[in-house]
Amino acid sequence: MNTIIGExxxxxxxxxxxxxxxxxxxxxRWRAPWFGYFCAFVGVVGVSLVIALVxxxxxxxxxxLLYLVAVLWVAVSxxxxxxxxxxxxxxxxxxxxxxxxxxxxxVDDPNxxxxxxxxxxxxxxxxxxxxxxxxxxxxxxxxRQYTETLYAxxxxxxxxxxxxxxxxxxxxxxSDSFALAGVRACAILQTDVEGALTLCALTPANSSxxxxxxxxxxxxxxxxxxxxxxxxxFSLPTGDALAGDSPSPACLACIPLRSNRQIVGAxxxxxxxxxxxxxxxxxxxxxxxxxxxxxxxxxxxxxxLERAALRRQAIHTEALRESDRxxxxxxxxxxHDLRTPLAGIKAAVTSxxxxxxxxxxxxxxxxxxxxxxxxxxxNRLVSNLLDLSRLExxxxxxxxxxxxxxxxxxxxxxxxxxxxxxxxxxxxxxxxDDLPLALMDHDxxxxxxxxxxxxxxxxxxxxGVIHIAARVIRDELETRVSDEGIGVTPGELTAIxxxxxxxxxxxxxxxxxxxxxxxxxxxxxASIIHAHQGRIWAESQPGHGATFIFTxxxxxxxxxxxxxxxxGRTETLALPA
Amino acid sequence: MNQMMNQMNEQAQQxxxxxxxxxxxxxxxxxxGRTIRAGLASDEFxxxxxxxxxxxxxxxxxxxxxxxxLDLFLPDQDGVMVCRAxxxxxxxxxxxxxxxxSEQDKVLALNxxxxxxxxxxxxxxxxxxxxxxxxxxxAGLRDHALRxxxxxxxxxxxxxxxxxxxxxxxxxxxxxxxxxxLVYLAQHAGMVVRHRELLRAVWGAEHEDEAxxxxxxxxxxxxxxxxxIGAPRYILTEPGIGYRLRAPETPGD
Lengths: 577, 253
What we know:
The structure holds 2 protein chains of 2 kinds.
Chain A lengths: L1 H29 L2 H25 L9 H12 L1 H19 L11 H50 L3 H15 L5 E9 L5 E7 L11 H14 L3 E4 L14 E10 L2 E11 L2 H10 L4 H65 L7 H33 L7 E3 L1 H14 L8 E4 L7 E3 L1 H17 L7 E8 L2 E7 L28 H5 L5 H11 L3 E6 L5 E8 L24
Parallel strand pairs in A: 7-9
Antiparallel strand pairs in A: 1-2, 1-5, 3-4, 4-5, 6-8, 9-10, 10-12, 11-12
Helix pairs in contact in A: 2-3, 2-4, 3-4, 3-5, 4-5, 5-9, 6-9, 8-9, 9-10, 10-14, 11-12, 12-14
Chain B lengths: L1 H15 L4 E6 L3 H11 L4 E6 L2 H11 L3 E5 L7 H11 L4 E5 L4 H9 L4 E4 L4 H19 L7 E4 L2 E4 L4 E4 L2 E3 L3 H12 L5 E2 H8 L8 H15 L9 E4 L3 E4 L8
Parallel strand pairs in B: 1-2, 1-3, 3-4, 4-5
Antiparallel strand pairs in B: 6-7, 7-8, 8-9, 10-12, 11-12
């Protein structure tokens, strides 16, 4: 929902921007100097005609004041220069057409001189005052627009959720806002820890107005700009198809971005040659609104890049610290978990080897059973560690094949049974007969099942039943392993999937000998399931057992056929020779 | 120590020379070799132990063992190559014993002629059972008269003549193809039967790549024979490789 609103706001904002741009372009056209003088002329001619018409009906004494209307209009619309021109034209027209002798510059009645010059003075003064007011209004308007645009930029930065979207939005904003100056596309490049540049955003990705340079070109040019630490302008080869459309040759301007004297990235502008003025003007004075807007944009961009770099650094440091913590935890756990069974083996063996010992057969058997258990425990620890390191290193890419989950469940229970771990525990498996084939790595999913069942055995009482169930929910295959044990507190529900996390100690004194994990089991499960694009989580009511659930995606392309039923043979099958 | 072992071997040879089963172990790990020799050393078995692939091959031709136990990680060459070399001139059963536990490693060794695969660490009774299964299979191949009219493992009984399958005395209705599949597994009871092999034997070569459907199919047989998954199981899955029907208990095991 939030994203939808965000999207809408962005669209509205973009729409408003485009409207402003259109307005500004209109004003720009009107500002062409000759147009103002032309309007002054037209205005004066028009007013002269009106005065002539009125004079023909009834002569009015101060009718020439009407010229002021034209002067004021021109002053409001085009400013000072046009207003002066209009005032002078009005003076001339009045003199030539309405003060005898007509069509001559001379004036018969000296009183008429007075009124003529009064007109000129009034027109000039009124024109100047109006033009000044217009200039101020225009300034206010522009600075309001400037503030609004900057505000929109600040808002963009403030509301961004992640760096890459923000940079793309900023690049879009840049190519929109500076389109007037000839910018067609914006590229934002970031320097990484080693100082190498990467292209983070290029918008629009392709322009209908001009062909964009490829990533490699942008990177090479930006690197050149970074070495000189100065903006550099490169001309681009013009695309044949568009040559007719773009009058000025396309070029790529690369501007290094600095924050706190440190280079944090580069901005690449792709557009017509005219946009270079934007950069140069900004460097020199910065009184042009668009140029100073560009300056602000550049600063904001540098700040954003710097912040992103700092954030990355913080994440990196955090990761290092975490890996440090894990190493320590691993060392401690492994030392403990390797030494314990080794100690058991050593003690039992030395006791058996002791020459003086006179032991009953029962006692000997007990010692041997202890050695056997310890060896199994060591083996499990080693496989877990191996699995984990393989999974972490990404070596153990799941070797995906089509299986039904019940086959894997059976295999897992078999392995546990052979390891003597099931004893007389009751395990109930409920799977529908028509389970679909799903893509999985048999060994890895079996490992998940083994770890989950081991976990259930470890944390539940000997008489508790363990339920395993599988079912299809929409496009996922869900498998649940539930126990009737001590459960998991809400605070631990996610922590248990972390490495080296161990739940509360098992309540069964006998069960703890079985435990022997270093808190790797569930984190291995999580790694495997994530590598299968599935989900894994735990649900629990403390005291009423826990349920571990994992899902595997069901591919719509799964094979749906089956092996044909054959008539059957009369003889038993021939054995291979 | 070695001298003592050799003496023991000689003693064993003297007392049981004609009837004992010759087991050749090719493994460079001292502890494994010593343990297998000690574990199998009885009146029934005669164990020879060699450290490299080269000496192993020499022993195969010279001593002519009944079963070969082969490690894949040998000092002079890869065990898979040794496997292939042995297969080039004898059908003596080979049981691979290795720390490599990935499906690919197992399939590779089986494709090169190994009969069975056991991962380290292993239990001695398991190894002994595999050795017996391999021997029984060879005996069955050699002598048709040894084939029995019925097969039994645990509560599962297959009566070949009446084409009848019962579990704990209760008759189970299998389709003809399900029956054929089960019989093929029974003829190789205790041994791993690869997907392709089973598909080719029951459905023919054109179906041999449809291992995924075989899984569904075997699942059906399982549901008929093993109504409760938690109960004893007869058809064991060898992940990524195939199936193994539980070997019948031999008297005296």
